[in-house]
Specification:
Length: 337
């Protein structure tokens, strides 16, 4: 099946904002330090139509930056993102409406001064998806679809609970009738009891609306539940990609294996009740990433080649690939024979 969303060699670099004095000094030939952060570095991914791709990794690995690049919120420094062959940034500055985003904190993403009905209707009116005369009915239909009382459209965000605000944020995104939905930690700020409701709503809507989606989360159990495939990210690069059952069942990259092992697990037949293994070492600074494989300073399998040669994504079999010189040591024998 061909790719619907195609991310090709996407890099996003953040440079420092120079003060007026530093700008003048630079113009005059002065030595002004301008260290940059490569938040995303040469990522190539594809998402098939109707698929949910899970994106996981430690904090600061570049997941949200990549999600914003796919949505056109942060244009890539280099590389391209296309939806069904059309560029997300149509003229280099204007992002397509075919991709919409649900953010982590629904209260921060909603205008506290605006009634929620107006918030949901603003985009569809601007893009001709509904008229001002019909906007109330249009918004009420989407409120009903996400499990909210249509009579609440005249309320302000502070009058809702966290779970209700996230439903409003989902309604606002879907009211734009997107082809692709980016969910950036959409349940992280919610109570555990509410998280399941929002996840089930997400699954129902993506199925009914045939949405293609990228689901970003720290919660591995959520990713395992909602995703068809999973991409594991470390320090701006994808290190493993494959069907969610295969990656969770038999991780190929040492980082993926360590990440899954760091999740606390109940152990009822042992002296300790909870068991987990921490990942050794600290995440390297993105200002000065390691040479070779980014994970080699923390990897128990690292050798000299890991310090000098950056591994490329190599296919294990159809739809599964890994960026590791020694991935066969992590996989079971039956996976690579």
């Amino acid at each position: 099946m061909s790719a619907f969303v195609q991310i090709t060699d996407v890099t996003r670099v953040f440079g420092p904002k120079l003060s007026l004095g530093e700008k003048i000094a630079a113009k005059l030939g002065g030595n002004v330090e301008t260290r940059s952060v490569r938040a995303v570095s040469g990522v190539t991914l594809s998402v098939r139509k109707g698929e949910t791709l899970g994106l996981v990794g430690e904090s600061g690995c570049g997941k949200s930056t990549l999600g914003r690049a796919i949505a056109g919120i942060l244009p890539p420094t280099s590389g391209t993102v296309t939806i069904d062959g059309a560029p997300v940034m149509a003229d280099g500055t204007k992002a397509t409406t075919r991709v919409q985003t649900v953010f982590q904190d629904p209260f921060a993403s909603l205008d506290p001064r605006m009634k929620v009905g107006h918030t949901v209707a603003e985009g569809p009116i601007a893009h001709g998806l509904t008229t001002r005369a019909d906007a109330r009915r249009y918004v009420a239909d989407w409120f009903d679809r996400v499990g909210l009382d249509p009579a609440w459209v005249e309320r302000h965000p502070h009058q809702f609970s966290g779970g209700q605000r996230q439903r409003i944020a989902i309604a606002r995104a879907l009211a734009m009738q997107p082809d692709v939905l980016i969910c950036d930690e959409p349940v992280a700020s919610l109570d555990v009891s509410i998280q399941a409701q929002i996840i089930n709503l997400f699954l129902e809507l993506t199925r009914d609306l045939a949405l293609t989606s990228v689901f970003i989360s720290h919660d591995l159990s959520v990713i395992q539940h909602v995703s068809d495939r999973v991409a594991v990210m470390y320090l701006g690069r994808i290190v493993e990609l494959g069907p969610v059952g295969e990656v969770f069942g038999n991780p190929a990259h040492p980082y993926t294996k360590a990440l899954f092992g760091s999740v606390p697990k109940l152990v009822l037949d042992a002296d300790e009740l909870v068991r987990f293994e921490t990942i050794e070492g600290e995440v390297p600074s993105p200002l000065s990433p390691p040479t070779g494989c980014n994970f080699h300073p923390r990897c128990p399998c690292a050798t000299t080649i890991c310090q000098t040669g950056r591994p490329s994504m190599e296919p294990i079999h159809d739809y599964r690939s890994v960026a590791c010189h020694h991935y066969k040591a992590c996989l079971g024998k039956e996976e690579h024979d």
